[in-house]
Amino acid sequence: MKALLIGATGSTGHDLTDQLLDDSNYTEVVLFVRRSTGKSHPKLKEYIVDFSKPESFSDIITGDVLFSCLGTTLKTAGSKENQWKIDFDIPVAFAEIARKNEVGSFVLVSSYGASAKSSVFYSKMKGELEDYIAKLDFRQYIIFRPGPLIRKDTDRLGEKIAVKVIKVLNALGLFKNIKPISTYFLAQKLRKAPKELPLGITILELDRILKF
Questions:
Q1: Contacts of 54 (CB under 8 A, 6+ apart)
Q2: In 16-129, beta strands by DSSP E
Q3: Is there a domain that residue 159 lies in?
Q4: What is the longest distance spanned by two Cα atoms in the chain?
């Protein structure tokens, strides 16, 4: 399989890239990035692109499966408008082009609580993204909704505190549905998903992510 990936410079995307390169089922791994990952491998192709102009490189968005690990925080983005551009507009643009180019599978890293009906900006944005891509009618569309992620060497203080608090609550038998998982573990599940899950739409909440 030929894998395409957006979000390769993030923690989950970084781990997924390494795992795809090590997996013999994937014969080619194509990254679309703003800056180089610095990785080198016989199966790897890396394109440094302007994400605001996807039409300029639409002819190379071709393959068997597109993984979207793209996402940012409101603090990093600076505004809800900028966060929407990164978390919604870019994945949608890639998904539309991939569908036109007959990419069969789309694997999306969404979020716990994603719902277009949510009153929470982030959850609503992720929910609307899920729904938009569903309408594109990929042969296989897989949505992952993990809870908090444990990122190696993260510099996000709020994230570190949240993970520690949730771990304590989990130990007390509380909030099991938002148990933190590592980006490496999530990447393992992402890598396996196109091969092991059926055609059509599959949504994986945390309990199913842990089991499959």
A1: 61, 90, 93, 94, 97
A2: 28-33, 44-48, 65-68, 105-109
A3: no
A4: 52
In the block, tokens 């949510």 appear at: 118
Domain count, the chain: 1
pLDDT (tens digit per residue) in 118-133: 999 999 999 999 999 9
Domain annotation covers residue 132: yes
What is the average per-residue pLDDT within 80-97?
97
| Owning domain of residue 51 | 2-151+181-211
pTM for this structure? Answer: 0.88
Closest by CA position to 63, among listed 115, 14, 101, 95: 101
What's the burial of 169, exposed, middle or buried (CB within 10 Å: 0-12/13-18/19+)?
middle
166 falls within a domain: no
